[in-house]
């Protein structure tokens, strides 16, 4: 039992944190008409797609409706800043780094809370500052949502420190809940064709999902290992390598591509439809049902795949780290030559991962041009890819907690 004590303790903390998170998503805001709010958000597709993959719940107006969205976006923005300005970021103290991350989280929480309250403003019940006739309905509702978002960020940080699965543990339940809905309703816009569930379609979905999950596990685990020479270690322990994942961006492109792609449609009234040339352009080039839209979505996926891959790998930082520790890639000079070599391998692997990404995300859309319901599989398979990547990371952490006490060095 001693061997599993740390694992069971971490598991218990994660269970408690998830229980608090799920409970918060069931506590309704005190001054919102839920039926009216749901109707107001019905056609804001990009917001619902964003919520499905970030632990947010925009379909129900609750304390944690904003959820993990600001925190996740802030971590990605911080990684991007770190990749671009590594020299400046490395000189910051831990306190300054924490201030920067949570400062971005706060700003995004304010922006997303404002957006959500603005979209549902017609469902808000008026309330006043105690003892006055000052209407604080809008600001008060925003403050509740902001407080909820910051509390969720704290929960995620706590789980990363003492739980299992880092901060992504809070996202996994929402993704699992959303997978059946993604398959049935697809992207959820006005053009979506609902998949009717019967014995045949359910069997096909399960078989395709099972095969794809196996494929996802294999591709997420695949990596290129560049041999590293470590002169400062004795020869017996000097053999090492720099791993570069084939899917360097993991499932990140699928997490944000749909909501980003659907964002321009927010400027078109979904009830009336396009009424100007600009709106007609948007509905043509940002639709999953037109060749132009599929081409645009392909571009979005490719750009996100490259960007997230670069942010996750950070070639400049890798080369700098190797040089500072007096290590080097075999046959490559330290410094700029090492960075160029890493970038060369990254570009090659990105080409492979781009093909995989397009097969998953764009393949069903191409079929959907002729058989509309097939387009739903784009979001379905993308969600499975996200889930597989996150689950592998959690499984690796669990394996580490269970096996680390087998080594005498840890006793």
From TrEMBL:
One of its GO terms (biological process) is protein transport. GO terms for cellular component: membrane. Keywords: Membrane, Transmembrane, Transmembrane helix. It holds the Pfam family SecY. The chain crosses the membrane at residues 62-81, 102-124, 136-155, 160-179, 199-221, 242-263, 294-313, 349-371, 377-395. The keyword Isomerase does not apply. This is Preprotein translocase secY subunit (TC 3.A.5.1.1).
